From TrEMBL:
GO molecular function, a single term: kinase activity
SUPFAM superfamilies, A to Z: GckA/TtuD-like
Protein's recorded name: Glycerate kinase
Lineage: Archaea, Methanobacteriati, Methanobacteriota, Stenosarchaea group, Halobacteria
Keyword Transferase: yes
Signal peptide location: none
Pfam families, per the entry: DUF4147 (PF13660), MOFRL (PF05161)
Lineage: superkingdom: Archaea
PANTHER family for this protein: GLYCERATE KINASE (PTHR12227:SF0)
The MOFRL-associated domain, residue ranges: 17-250
Source species: Halohasta litorea
Keyword check for Transferase: yes
């Protein structure tokens, strides 16, 4: 899975970090998750702890989007076969399917081809009838991969606003509040388009806390955010949004455009949502991999958020405490965390939250010695294999990564850590992984 793994596995500690990453990503792959979460016995379809009588439906339609959507569709086809009548998913990681049409899009910034694919998906939703069972596949990355600009908002308007929000340091809840109110699909509007069909979702969560309204901007989930709040986000971060965006949001505030459906709206109240995988899925598998190698383990949290470089300082401090005082675990130990950190863009370079986390951690480790206390190795990846807008999943570093602290600090200041880590042989590349369950951070204390 990890390119040039042998070179990256420079020590036992490095190898352990990479093992944990691979185990976590594999555990979150749709073929693994769907096999466990979905079953078919005659006409009875089981999804998690719920069952559905397929005899009561004239057709089964698969609709969805996100980094893992095509892989989920393939896994469902292996179980349901020709019981699936049709479907459309939009993804940036296409694979061959038998019954479901796969349309390609782009992530993290929406593209014209994703708009075309989303329009096809919405047309399929519009065609659903009362005796249709819609299986909605909602995975991380769906916010960008399912763009459906509303009203007079253009794709260019949506791209510009998305870019500004991603660079502002706004959290995912704030970003999605805006995106949902600029979309004809997000914020429960897909459920509204599919009504009166029965809608059942399979959700692969890349959101801290599994807020259904935030995962892929909640296409079939109730939305409690408002047009007024979306405008407030733009104001809070000083976003100079295009005129069409402001006009659309202001029209919503004045009541000229219907709000997204809230929890008491029948079209979303009737949807059955099933979170079949999330950040803890990844952490549990990584923890088991570390334990198999003889390490004590500690899962800090699946909900780590905030500025990436600040989170790195805290993680290294905990590792140093483990090393110095055997608290809260004794070395050899592996410390794990998940969640989603953010980066406030101040420069004009390339990188991502996990690469900034790793670079900041390497600076903290700079100058420490692998003497009697042993080595600390830090690895951080985005489980979809795409950190920021780069081809790297993240990075792995230790006390030798930084030779010149000023060069590393300059790379962080310019948000240009990708070339720095590349020059230090620290980048972790996996290619698209078929899943997206948030970030995975591994700190190995030998």
């Amino acid at each position: 899975m990890i390119e040039d793994r042998d070179r990256l596995a420079a020590s036992e500690a490095h190898g352990t970090a990479l093992d944990c990453i691979e185990a976590g990503i594999e555990a979150g792959h749709p073929r693994t998750i769907v096999r466990d979460a979905v079953g078919l016995d005659g006409d009875t379809l089981r999804i998690a702890d719920s069952t559905y009588d397929l005899g009561g439906y004239e057709e089964i339609v698969v609709l969805g989007g996100g980094n893992a959507a095509a892989h989920v569709a393939v896994a469902l086809e292996a179980i349901l076969g020709d019981r699936i009548d049709r479907g459309v998913v939009v993804t940036d990681d296409p694979v061959d399917t038998e019954r479901v049409t796969v349309r390609e899009g782009d992530h993290p910034v929406p593209s014209e081809r994703a708009v075309d694919g989303t329009r096809e998906l919405l047309a399929a939703a519009d065609a659903a009838a009362e005796d249709t069972l819609v299986l909605a596949l909602i995975t991380g990355g769906g916010s960008a991969l399912l763009p459906a600009p509303a009203g007079e908002v253009s794709l260019a308007d949506l791209q510009s606003t998305t870019d500004s929000l991603l660079e502002s340091g706004a959290d995912i809840h704030e970003i999605n509040a805006v995106r949902k109110h600029l979309s004809a699909l997000k914020g429960g509007r897909l459920a509204r388009r599919a009504a009166p069909a029965t809608v059942v979702s399979l959700i692969f969560s890349d959101v801290v806390g599994n807020d259904l309204s935030v995962i892929a901007s909640g296409p079939v989930a109730p939305d409690e955010s408002t047009f007024d709040e979306a405008l407030a986000v733009l104001e809070r971060y000083g976003i100079d949004a295009p005129d069409a965006v402001i006009a659309h949001l202001e029209s919503g505030v004045s009541g000229e455009i219907d709000e997204t459906p809230s929890a008491d709206d029948p079209v979303v109240a009737a949807v059955s949502n099933h979170v079949v995988a999330d950040g803890m899925t990844v952490l549990a598998a990584a923890q088991a991999a570390a334990a198999d190698r003889g390490y004590e383990t500690l899962v800090l949290s699946s909900r780590v958020r905030g500025e990436a470089r600040d989170a790195a300082t805290t993680h290294v401090a905990i590792a140093e405490e483990v090393q110095a005082t055997d608290t809260p675990v004794s070395p050899p130990a592996v410390i794990l965390s998940g969640g989603e950190t953010t980066v406030t863009i101040r420069g004009n370079g390339s990188g991502g939250p996990n690469q900034e986390f790793a670079t900041s951690a390497a600076l903290e480790l700079n100058g420490s010695k692998e003497d009697d206390e042993g080595r600390i190795v830090v690895a951080a990846v985005d489980t979809d294999g795409i950190d920021g807008a780069t081809d790297a999943a993240g990075a792995v570093v230790d006390e030798t990564t930084v030779e010149d602290p000023e060069t590393a600090r300059a790379a962080l200041a310019e948000n240009d850590v990708y070339p720095y880590l590349e020059s230090r042989d620290g980048l972790v590349l996996t290619g698209p992984t078929g899943t997206n369950l948030n970030d995975l951070r591994v700190v190995v204390v030998d």
